[in-house]
Amino acid sequence: MSIPALLHRNATQFADAPAYREKEFGIWQSWTWAETEKEIEALALGLINLGVNEGDFIAIIGRNRPYLYWSMVAAQSVGAIPVPLYQDAVAEEMAYVLGHCGARFVIVSDQEQVDKVIEVQDQLHQFEHMIYLDPRGLRKYDHSHLHQFSHVQKQGRAAYDEFINELKARREKLDYDSTCVMLYTSGTTGKPKGVVLSNRNIIETAKSSSEFDHLKREDDILAYLPMAWVGDFIFSVGQAYWTGFCVNCPESADTMMTDLREIGPSYYFAPPRVFETQLTNVMIRMEDASRMKKWLFDTFMAHARKVGPAILDGKQVSGMDRFKYWLGHLFVYGPLKNTLGFSKVRVGYTAGEAIGPEIFDFYRSLGINLKQLYGQTEATVFITAQPDGEVRSDTVGVPSPNVELRIAENGEVFYRSPGVFVEYYKNAESTAGTKDAEGWVATGDAGFIEPDTGHLRIIDRAKDVGQMANGSLFAPKYVENKLKFYPNILEAVVFGNGREECVAFINIDLTAVGNWAERNNIAYASYQELAGHPQVMATIQDHVEEVNRSVAEDEMLSGCQVHRFVVLHKELDADDGELTRTRKVRRRIIEEKYADIIAALYDGSKEVSTRTEVTYEDGRKGHINATLEVREAAVSAVAAKLAAE
Question: How many CA atoms lie within 13 A of 87 on its CB side?
């Protein structure tokens, strides 16, 4: 059993059903499973013609396009191993991954990616050929080792008689233990590691997770998340090939929301950041709405928060409440879901990091079956998931089918499943440190299993969970997620491990705060100027103090209230190494880079002058100088009482 074998099954059994759609030049193009098999076969023959050997690594770089998904399956078909990379990675990051896996072949989407690979090709001793999709801007390049995608397919079709038996022989060798894909970790603590996943890992996980959520051939998904991320691979390749549903690719990041509304997927996945952004946009629009519309929205959303999740879970709700909810659906929830593109969503998931409970509850109150799952690349995504009717914002669900869980004495979560990765490529030491001889894998996260429900609750990254100086628990992510619920706050980083008090960095959301400035006729020349505006600072302080009151209600975590904060002069950025490509905070790097600001937050300073290195879009380096105000935030009496003890 392999992904290419599932392709052949789908092309035989569901020949005329849609497998892929892509919007190009404003028009949706479509390919059936039978057409998809032919496209992949032509590319596979072209790869053999180009000299691809079994065991070779083929890097794939670009946005979500059917052609690049076909490239991954074509690579598997010839016995090679696909290695998708993040398309927004800078050339240096790509050089590390391409060099580490020793990719002889690279398939890219356009001139931008071609240029990045050419920039670092002198560091890549095994690199031989590059294939590109979009020919724009590439006519005058040296084509001795550069090939157009359609030409490789054309040459493959021309060499059909010569290579078809070789292709069949390679496909037939593939089995459950063959490598399906190699995906690199985001590298929150160091260099990314190559996670080797077998056909067994992908297919068994796809099968059990599809059955868990009753996915079927008629479902539609929108493939818009990075192809280098394990979530996209399991949804857009694993589950798609197992169930035979259709993968839809948007025209671009700019048209994603329009394309989402047009497709109306029944199965949808997004990390918390996407849901946060969508909610921010809704709140911005409501600020500009008429008084009547705003009153309708506020009135019916208050009712939705009260009864929406219960109605969604099929629980008992009074007839009057149901009628009021029906009215709300007519006037507010229905139009809002349609605007968001969620009208047809039957199963929705969020994962990648914890989502703020307020954000999570907002979507479920609209009647969207949004659930949380907990997973990681080494697990082929699924560790826990939430069954229908058991969805809560404070847990990540029960063990996924065929997954075993255990909690170590130090609170770290371990799991074992058919999805457990084969190894870290060229890194036996890390493999042994992560996966023991019995197949148990350390997640690096701290949590506990509720004895009465069996649900797993994640507290934070195990390395980030610590203790305040007074012995109370320090869990920064818990507070950060509460802060990020506010549309004005894009990112938050909380510090305090081993300290008397917690402090925080805040990033404003330029879209939300810029919209507020526009409505209030407040002029600003830069992100830095807007971030330091007195009214913006006062608004952020209100948010911090409101979060403090909320945190104080949890006795276990009430010591994590934020005493002082600064609004940073720049957005935390993956290009500056402050975030991973999946937008996870690199806490240690931020602590080192902004040590002067952290020191000022703790030494009683009223302001701090700082100089920060930044990376511009064209790769050049520069510096930003800023003087930041250090703000005091009121804390709840609960924290004061605990501190006194």
Answer: 20
pLDDT at 51 over 50: yes
Report if pTM > 0.90: no
Helices (H), 350-415: 357-365
Task: Kindly report the CATH number assigned to the domain that includes residue 441.
Answer: 2.30.38.10
Do 529 and 390 belong together in one domain? no
User: Are the CB atoms for 451 and 442 separated by under 8 Å?
Assistant: no
Determine how many CB atoms are found less than 10 A away from the CB of residue 375.
26
Q: Give a three-class secondary structure readout of 34-50.
A: HHHHHHHHHHHHHHHHH
CATH number at residue 478: 3.30.300.30
- Reported as type and span, the H/E element at residue 399 is strand 398-399
The answer to whether position 286 is within a domain reads: no
The token duo for 29 is: 């193009």
The residue type found at 510 is: L
The contacts of residue 409 (CB under 8 Å, 6+ apart) are none
**Which positions ≥6 away from 442 have C-beta within 8 Å?**
408, 412, 414, 433, 434, 435
Taking only the tens place, the pLDDT of each residue in 238-247 is 999 999 999 9
C-alpha to C-alpha distances, 283 to 370, 613, 623, nearest whole angstrom = 19, 33, 34
> For residue 575, which of 589, 565, 592 has the smallest C-alpha distance?
589
By residue range, what is the domain housing residue 202?
A: 3-269
CB within 8 Å of 457: residues ≥ 6 apart: 394, 395, 396, 447, 448, 449, 450
Q: Give the pLDDT confidence of 315-351 residue by residue, as tens digits.
A: 888 999 999 999 999 998 999 999 888 999 999 998 8
CA–CA dist 12, 3 (Å, integer): 14
pLDDT 10s digits, 343-399: 999 999 988 777 777 788 899 999 999 999 999 899 999 999 999 888 988 888 999
> Is residue 210 within 8 Å of residue 239, measured between CB atoms?
yes
Q: Which residue in 372, 427, 541 sits closest to 182, CA to CA?
A: 427
Of 471 and 118, which is predicted with more confidence?
118
Q: Where are the beta strands (DSSP E) in 462-606?
A: 466-467, 473-474, 489-495, 502-508, 562-567
Question: From edge to edge, which strands make up the β-sheet containing 194-198?
Answer: 179-184, 194-198, 423-424
Backbone angles phi, psi at 63, to 5 degrees: -75, 170
Interior angle at CA 104, CA 102 and CA 109, nearest 5: 110
Tokens of 260: 């989402």
Please choose, from the candidates 588, 299, 332, the residue with its C-alpha nearest in 3D space to the C-alpha of residue 461: 588
Q: The domain spanning residue 262 has which CATH number?
A: 3.40.50.12780
Both 485 and 604 in a single domain? yes
Residue 150 lies in a domain: yes
- Tell me which DSSP letter residue 333 carries: I
Residue ranges of E strands in 153-245: 179-184, 194-198, 220-222
Q: How far apart are CA 362 and CA 368, in angstroms?
A: 9
Give the number of C-alpha atoms closer than 13 A to the C-alpha of residue 151, restricted to the C-beta side: 13
Q: Do 26 and 139 fall within a single domain?
A: yes
In terms of domains, do 414 and 510 share one? no
Tens of pLDDT, residues 477-516: 888 888 887 878 889 999 998 898 999 999 998 888 988 8
The rounded distance, in Å, linking the Cα atoms of 188 and 8 is 38
Provide the domain count of the chain: 3
User: Which of 462, 482, 500 lies at the terminal end of a domain, its last residue?
Assistant: 462
Dihedral sign for Cα 29, 33, 34, 39, please: positive
Indicate the residue among 241, 269, 297 that finishes a domain.
269
